[in-house]
Amino acid sequence: MLVSAFLLTSCTTSGSGGDDAGDSSQSPAPRSTRTATEPSEKKLTERAQAALAAVSSGTLVEAGVERVTDGIHTEPGLSEGKTYRLKLVCVGSGSAELEFVPANAGTAATVPCDESVVQQRVTADELVRINVAGAKGATGVIAWQIDAP
What we know:
Structural class: alpha+beta
Number of strands: 6
Shape: globular
């Protein structure tokens, strides 16, 4: 009788997704499959932020992390006549393209998604827009930071 009750409890608990010690060995697989993308993106974000922190210098002006598929589109509040340092790192696969509007605010570049940090000088002679778009099929995250010297 005790075995029957345990099996009933085990089946009920397994079906509800609880973390009871009586869960069958089959229940962890669906649980990890459902949440596999969340920890992966979190880990990629942590790696990207660590790469930027390793080359940090100056005073932080603005920073962020975006999915490669979403890209970066920002108009940072930069002071006219000043020069800033933009740092980008993409963690994942593929690459992304960096562009500035106006084009003379910085140099367009390819950002590989291999955890290498790409640095650009940004000159703020007027309102600057920074755009980073993932290449076709690129995945992962892009972290960026703008520092004042």
